[in-house]
Amino acid sequence: MSILWWGILGSTLAGLATGLGGIPVLFPSLSAVSHRFRDELLGFAAGVMLAATAFSLLIPAIEYGGVWVALGGVVLGVLLLDLMDRFLPHEHFEKGLEGPRSKLREIWLFVIAITLHNFPEGLAVGVSFGTGNVSDGVTVATAIGIQNIPEGMAVAISLLGVGYPRSRAFFYAFLTGLVEPLGGVLGAGLVSIMHFFLPWGMAIAAGAMLFVISDEIIPETHHGKSARFSTYALIAGFGIMMLLDNLLG
């Protein structure tokens, strides 16, 4: 298949993993988890993202484009997410409302917040298939899919905790993963048209993911008595993804 189709397939499967993670919320016996466990799930997801950023995106970006291209791409990715974070209204369960005031319902502000997480992940998957080595793209898609499962579960449980019915909590968690194919199409399409964009795209996706990890996920999970548990969960996610990256790559 072409790079574009691999990017679409990989990012779609990774995005669907978010819905897979939300399935337990449909069953009372599986969804009765603590706030601490939700933070641990998100911490684990952050660790997986961090390892994928380092080993699957930044190292290849340096190999293909050099350290200055990689650094420039990271800066662009950070600035892109910073602008989106500042000018798109969105809401987090712990940090509350960010961006300009909006008349949108709270649930849609929350969906926008998760969308800001997932778009750079889809971009990372799409760009990673541009190396011409399918295993590179499969590694990144696997990483994003793995971290989307606990993220989807955490999102669904959080929605359930603020009063949403089980079916709607699952649906909204599933919905947040559907933005990843859009990022995948963009990343794979740009690499297909302009091959020189490959290291830039990898570094931009890496910078965007670093911004999400540092500005969004860690503050959401590292608070109160949950902080130390979330830290160990992050380290566990990082270690597991480091092993998978070497085994799959």
From TrEMBL:
InterPro entries referenced in this protein's UniProt entry, alphabetically: ZIP (IPR003689)
Record's keyword terms, sorted: Cell membrane, Membrane, Transmembrane, Transmembrane helix, Zinc
Coiled-coil blocks: none
Parts of the chain that traverse the membrane: 6-29, 41-59, 65-83, 104-120, 140-162, 169-191, 197-217, 229-248
KW Aminoacyl-tRNA synthetase (keyword) present: no
Localisation per UniProt entry: Cell membrane
Keyword Kinase included in the entry's annotation: no
Source taxon at top rank: Bacteria
Membrane topology: Multi-pass membrane protein
Record family assignment: Belongs to the ZIP transporter (TC 2.A.5) family.
Protein name, per record: ZIP family metal transporter
UniProt organism field: Thermatribacter velox
Lineage: Bacteria, Pseudomonadati, Atribacterota, Atribacteria, Atribacterales
